[in-house]
Specification:
50% of the residues lie in helices and 0% in strands. By secondary structure, it is mainly α. The longest helix is centred in the first third of the chain and has 10 residues. The protein is globular, with a radius of gyration of 8 Å. The mean pLDDT is 97.
Length: 40
Amino acid sequence: MATVYATLIIKGVKTFDQVPDKLKPQVREILIALECEDMA
């Protein structure tokens, strides 16, 4: 599910603030790995 949120953030459909709190650490790690840490 974290990958889905990261993809939606990159596509501009969602923002990091819309990610459920329990998934935020995982989504942040994915965004950093994809060199999109500015979106986290």
